[in-house]
Amino acid sequence: MLSHILLSPWAPFMPPAKSDFAGSLDTLYGFIWWTMAFFFVIIVFLLFYLPYKYRRGDKPTLTPRITHNLALELTWSGIPALLIIVIAFWGFNLFVKAYVPPGGDVTEINVTGKQWAWSFEHKDGTVIPGELHVPVGRPVKLVMSSTDVIHSFFIPDFRVKSDVVPGRYSSIWFTPKEVGDHQVFCTEYCGDSHSAMLATVHVVTEEQYKETLENGGLPKEAPPAQRGALIYQRAGCVTCHTVDGVRLVGPTFKGIFGRTEQLVGGGSLTVDENYIRESILQPQAKIVAGFEGQQMPSFQGVLNDRQIGWIIEYLKTLK
Amino acid sequence: MTADAHAAHHHEDFYVEGGKGIWSWLTTLDHKRIGLMYLWSVLLFFFVGGMLALTIRLELMNPGKDFLTAKQYNEVFTLHGAIMIFLFLIPAIPAALGNFVLPLLLGAKDVAFPRLNLASYYIYVLGGIFMIYAIWMGRVDTGWTFYTPYSVKASSAVIPMVLGVFIIGFSSIFTGLNFIATIHKMRTPGMTWSKMPLFCWGMYATSLIQVLATPVLGITLVLLTMEKVWHIGLFDPERGGDPVLFQHFFWFYSHPAVYIMILPGMAVISEVIPTFSQKHIFGYKAIGFSSVAIAILGFLVWGHHMFVATQSQLASIIFSAITYLIGIPSAIKVFNWLATMYKGSVQLKTPMLYALSFIFLFTIGGLTGIFLACLAVDIHLTDTYFVVAHFHYVMMGGNAIGFLAGLHYWWPKMFGRMYNEKLAQIACALVFIGFNGTFLPQFVMGSRGMPRRYYDYLPEFHTMHMLSTMGSWVLALGFFLMAGYLLASLRVGAKAADNPWLGLTLEWQTASPPPLHNFEKQPIPKVGPYDYGYPVHEPKRVPGLGGKEIVHGTGD
């Protein structure tokens, strides 16, 4: 705990500030922190000093009748009131700044949240699940919506957050200062795998950004199964389907290809390419017995045919 | 007083006078018995909610799965929140302690509507049973906030849980109505509004909120049920509804409800500090009016739960401004309590130790509230553990510690017996250390970005989670010790004096425990509730005795 204070003495306990906004927010946070610490020390001093100084002996003593003091009341109402006015206006200004992007060259990226994964659609149509690539040093605006319940998009290192609500758009913006990776959390409770609804922001150079979009966010010349494994991670399949045989929300992928499954409502089938494709695009069509009532979201419009093909190749490798 | 005269006036205490046997309790109209039934009920629910809290902390001690699945974890924190808020925090001080002592403080025989009082208790129990039904059958995992559209889509039985909360709401309304009527009409002659003990002012402010805000919760929950059953499209965007509208409805009740929880805690502290300082309360009017100011302003700040929930920025700015205003009456109270001890004759008995703990913890809760009221800073901190720590400091550090202060303060009056003072002080220290150990690390990880309601977390948060879990064990140890010496006190505790703490308010001017109708004669207060500064231990100065001789003692 102490090391956190020493590392950032002005803004104790805050994570590293990696956007322009994060720096100005930390100045305000630090001002409030140290102002509150000052009043806390005074109050705690009185809290220990007064009972000690005026402690009772064997018998209660006569105490003076001090009932009130208007000047004192006004002082300790007035000083906090003045400080609060300063903090309030400072906070209003930064708040408006936090949600209104600057004009000019802003990179817009569409964000979709659903149980329990994020996906990012860039202006050229490239959809990359689970990983947000942004160019360094330029303002980025995220236009966000949800397809099911309320989520919230939070990047601690940039100090930005907004709820992501079905049926409307919300947006945040930031200007990343340097190349590096940053954590994204979902911060509005959204069900079983809420805490696994994570993503990573990759702040990259302008050239790397272009290259990433060309390759759909995947490494150049990787074999299809390896690409499928990455999509399995990033699209959020991993939050419900394990590859080691453990049962989570949905059936495990271990040995899934070629397995014979009993279906809800009777009947059985052998898992092949067509069944996997159908289960990704229309999850409710044929449900494996024992998983009744689980609402897997459709990946229609999130994963294209090439990406689904890679996933199928990946599943074939899971013996 | 001669032996004969004593016999002529003597009444048995209410345990004896009101009749024996279970039936005499279940059908009682005596506010003291109803208060005690409430007391045991809220303590039972506090125990259940506390065990759930320990379960949560144990699962979070290490990242990944320990012994609960994600679904089970979500159910456990939902239950913990719902039980603690609706079955403990809201009724603990008003319905349990308030029911017992409010009429005594006012010099009244009972509350204004004794039957309504009993009805409120049964409605509370019924609502509680519905919630337990939801535990077994429902597997509700929506969190106590029931946010739409998750709560509409969730394939869990949200309806019985919501119905339970709806029913409990009526018990809260009944208690509020009863207290307002009692305070207006039942004060003993001579007790003007400005001579009323501050506990009664706190109860008055609380009751106003209960009566005015609880119906909105009822309406909201009915709308939610209709949405779930008939799919009419109020909150579900798939049917043209607005999910954020639900949050407005919900917080329109649930934010004032925060003040239903904290004002009673403040009310207890305003009694305990003058008594154990043997000194006039500093700023009586400032404390009384600040309670009412908090109650009124509390209705106008619900939107501060939604700064990042896509409400309009103008709305956020207005809600933020009003939120800061609430800080001022809260600060006034803290300074007034501190000033009361100045030149007092301070005795650090258990209730006073809890009162001082309250000031410490509530100060942290209040000062961290300034961070969250500040719009820009709230963007980063909201929905993280910073918020979890903040509201536990206010709710548990405020309400629950205030409740413990009151419980220890009025215990001798309620049961006529003392508890073991030394064990009580040790338990108080354990609770204080354990509480801070549990929740201080949560401020740290919250600032660093740890989101709330997370079943699993990144390794960088492991140390803080582990510290927090260890703190919860110390806290639990304190509570188990407390349960031990309080239950022991009922059997083997020394007999309590009528006025063990040398208080001036009217409940101390009658027997411990009091007779059925509270006082032998209508008590007429000759001095105000805080007119210390007279040597009260000299019998000729004893005020408002209503003709009965009072045994003063020090409680040792």
Silhouette of chain B: globular
Indicate the radius of gyration of chain A in whole angstroms.
Answer: 27 Å
Task: Sketch the major β-sheet of chain B.
Answer: none
Strand order of the largest sheet of chain A: 3-2-1-5-8
Question: Structural class of the helix and strand makeup of chain A?
Answer: alpha+beta
Percent helix range of chain B: 55-70%
Give the C-alpha Rg of chain B. 23 Å
How helix-rich are the residues of chain A, as a percent range?
25-40%
The count of helical stretches of chain B stands at 17
Write down how many β-strands of chain A occur, each being a DSSP E stretch of 2 or more residues: 12
Determine the number of helices of chain A (DSSP H or I, runs of at least 4 residues): 7
Distance between the termini of chain A: 46 Å
Uncertain residue segments of chain B: 1-8, 535-556
Strand portion of chain A, in percent? 15-25%
Quick one: how many beta strands of chain B?
A: 0
Shape of chain A: elongated
| Estimated share of beta-strand residues of chain B | under 5%
What oligomeric arrangement do these chains adopt?
heterodimer
